Amino acid sequence: GHRLLVAGQGPARQRVASLARAQRKIEYLGWVPHSRLYGLLQRVKTFWMPSIWAEPFGIAGVEAMAHGVPVIATPRGGITEWLKHGEFGVFLEPNHPEILAEIASNLASDQQRLTRMSTSARNFVERKFSHERCASDLIEIYNKISHD
User: Fold this and answer.
1) pLDDT by residue (tens digit) across 50-80?
2) Radius of gyration (Cα) for the chain, nearest Å?
3) Are 38 and 16 in contact (CB under 8 A)?
4) Total-model pTM
5) What's domain 32-146's architecture?
C-alpha cells in the first residue's frame, strides 16, 4: 500500500502530528536535516508542495527533481518559473483536498507516466541547474554589467 510521509514543520505541526498518529498510512517526520534528505527522496515516488503562500523559489522541489522525483505543487511564487505542468510535475490549486486525492490516485495507477515524469525531472535539473550552466549564466550577467 501507499504511505504519506510528511516532512517539515510550521504552525500546523502539532495538528499534523496528531492526525498522523491517528492514521496508519501517514508518517509525520517533522524537520528533516539535509543529511537525511537524500535517503528520504529515494523512498518516495512524488514530492508534494501544496503551499498556500508564494514560495520564493522552492529549492526543495528542485532537489526532489534532481533525484528523479516529480513535483506536485501549487502555482505560487517562484515554482511557476521552473515547474512544467504535465512534463515533470503537476500544478494543483490549494485548499482542494479532493483534487489532491484525485491526482495522487491517478499518478499511483500510472507507473509509465511516473517513470516518464521522473526521467524528465532529472534531465531538466541537469540541463537548467548544472554547475556549468549556473557558471555560464553568471559570466553572461557579469559581461552584460561590465559593458553597460
Assistant:
1) 888 888 999 999 999 999 999 999 999 999 9
2) 17
3) no
4) 0.84
5) 3-Layer(aba) Sandwich (3.40)
